[in-house]
Every structure is written in structure tokens, then in C-alpha cells.
Amino acid sequence: MNTQPSARLGNVLLAVAGGIAAYKIPELVRLLRRAGHSVRCVLTEAAGEFVSPLVLQTLSGAPVRSSLFDAGEEGEISHIELADWADLVVVAPATADRMAKLAQGLADDLVSTVLLATRAPVLLAPAMNVNMWSHPATRANAELLRERGVHFEGPEAGELACGWEGEGRMSEPVTLAGRVTLLLGGETWKGVRVLVSAGGTREPIDAVRSITNRSSGKMGFAVAEEAARRGAEVVLVAGPCPLPTPPGVRRIDIETALEMAAAVEQEFEASQVVVMAAAVADFRPAEASALKIKKEDLAPGAGLQIELVATPDILKGICGHKGDRVVVGFAAESHDVVEAARRKLARKGCDLLVANDISRTDAGFDTDTNAVMFVSPGGEVEELPLLPKIEVAGRILDRVEKLRKGTR
Ligand code: PMT
Known about the structure:
This protein is of the alpha/beta class. The protein contains 14 helices and 21 strands.
């Protein structure tokens, strides 16, 4: 089983600055190493107050440096050698002070000196108080750095450690690791058009009621995000859900299964890869009342007949004329997962079925993690461990890549 992303592996120099978000850096190191990158950490003096150098050394498998003037450290690998070694320098968390230093070209400690000396691309993951981030000085520094080609990931909006709410949170390690892979690997999916469906559909009964399901859209949005990060042109057909549109993704909002079918058919022709993660309603009310159905005429316990009719099977429909496209379906199963998934794959005719066991509380609907199995047309099964949905998305795209190359 190959679990490595297909992007080029590289040397990542992680410059850790002194901010509370530094506590997330061990997880970032772990993810980068797991993706196959070599990682070395350099710390500012303040960073050591927030994260243990020993932890970073253990996880990176390489000595950690923090002083420019330590003869022992400098003798082992000089700051210029470090700057030259890097294929990418990541500053995380990037504090307002670090951004200002880099913008002004200061070189008064190890991190600032390495940043000035390196020829490698630089990725900043800002993290600071919302007012510091929106201060005109920080805005100007960010602008200047962007103009010079420095990459940014985040900051994101949310609750901040300082108690304020707003833009200033460091992006999650999984997001940063994905960006690193993209920057190092280049846009490996450039020129590929990926169509993703996500979320549940909502089938109206009357003016206020509907039939729907518990799909949050998280799984499909993760696939769209990951495909865009790899440089694909991504179209996301999304059922009603409040998730933000991933960067670089074109989103088409729909409500019903019929609307989803129309949107998928419309976008299918120009796509090379289709991933149907949506939980499409299999039935819809034959007729939706334009007015609210009144309850007052009904005695308690009285029945109300709603005639349901089958919706089109979108996945089966597109697989009937899929040509050389790679089409991936999902299956939400509560028992006999493998057998049910094999039967579903045969019925739908897709190239890969991603089956989730929805009897688990940490997988399937409305969770941040998922535990899936890949089921192939030959009946082979690959079981993945419990992973964040963004990582599951990466594994799916890795598999799609192999299917496109005909190596799986
Ligand atoms: O959105 P989340 O909260 O993150 O949850 C993710 C998920 C559990 C919804 C997702 O991982 C998943 O399993 N999606 C498919 C759920 C489902 O409806 O399975 P199904 O067995 O009913 O459908 C099988 C496949 O056919 C799916 O690819 C579905 O998109 C497709 N289908 C189903 C019915 C239909 N009328 N048309 C379809 O195209």
C-alpha cells in the first residue's frame, strides 16, 4: 500500500517564532515527515517559551538550532548551509515582529539571518492578535512581502488565544502541510478538471418542510480543497451547507437531487475526474405543496400520506457515458460494509468506491475524521485508518492519480 503523496519530496526548514500557536508545530513536523519531507527546525529565542526544542528535535529527527552565535551548533551546520539546504522555508507561527523583520531585511538573529540568506521560496503562516494583523504597519509589511513573492497561508478567522475574535489564527497544521506539499511538488494537477459533489440534498414537502439527511458537506469540501491545492480546476456542486468555499474552487449551490443531477450533467463533459461525495436523496415527494400543509385538521395520531418517487441515480447515470474519465463514488454503510460496497460499485459502474462505516461515531456524517475503505471493481479492498477528512481526501486523489496513469 502506497500512502505517500505523489508530489516531489523536499527539505523543509521550519522557522518557529514566539507565539502561542507554536504549540501546533510538533503536529506540523509530524505531518511533514509523514508526507516524506526532510524537516529541520530553527527557533527564535522566544519560540522556546512556547514549544519544546526537544520535542521538535525528536519529531524532526534532526538537531534544532536557535542561536546564531553558538560555536557548536554553527560548527555542525552553519546558518548559511541551513539556508542553502532548504527547498522551502516555512515561518510558523509568523508573528508581526518576524514579518516586520523580513520586510525590512533585518538579520539580527538566526531565523532572520537564514531568511535573508536563503534562495528558497518562503511560506509564512501568520498568527497574531486581530488588531495587530489589521494594523496598517502589518498590512503594509504583508503587502510588501507578497509583492516580493513570499507565500502566505492564513491567518484564519476565529476565536484567538488572546480572547479576541477575528482574523489572526494560524492555519491548522494539516492545511500548512498541504500547502508545503503543493509548493514543493508544484501544481501536479494543473490542467485537470475535477468535479466534486458534496453535502445532502433537500427535497421539499411543502413551503417549510423537507426531506434531507445529516451530511455536513465536510468530506466533499475536503476533496475539493485538496484537488484545488494540487492545482486542479475544481467545480463543487454543493447541497445546502454553511461551509466556506475552499480557495480557488468554483461552487454551484443546489438544493434538490434534480438540481444536483442537472448541475453534475452540465459540468461532467468538461471534467476528467468526478468524485461524488454527496448524500443524494433517493426519494422525493412526488409533489411539493407551494403552501404550508396545515396540521389543524389532523387528529393526533392521524396519518398523512406523502407519495415519494425515486430520484435519478446521478452516479449511475454519468458512469453510463464516462469515457476515460475517472469516476469515484461514495457509500455510507451501517453494516456488512465491504459486501454492500462491492454490490454498490457493480451496480453504479464507477472506478472506485469509498465506503464509510457510518455506525462509528468518529466517521461518516458530520465528523472531522473519517474511516474509509477503498473498494475496486476487481473486488480488492484497502482499509485506511481513521484520518482527518482532508487526509482522506488526499489519499483518494493519490489513488485517482494512479487510476489515471493506469498503474492501479
Ligand atoms: O458530508 P459529511 O458530513 O462529511 O459526510 C460524508 C458522507 C458520509 C456523506 C460521505 O462520505 C458519503 O458517504 N457520501 C455518500 C453517501 C450516500 O448517500 O451513499 P449512497 O449509498 O446513498 O450513494 C452511493 C453513491 O451514489 C454516492 O456516491 C452518491 O453520491 C451517489 N448517488 C446516490 C443516490 C442518487 N440518487 N444519486 C447518486 O449519485
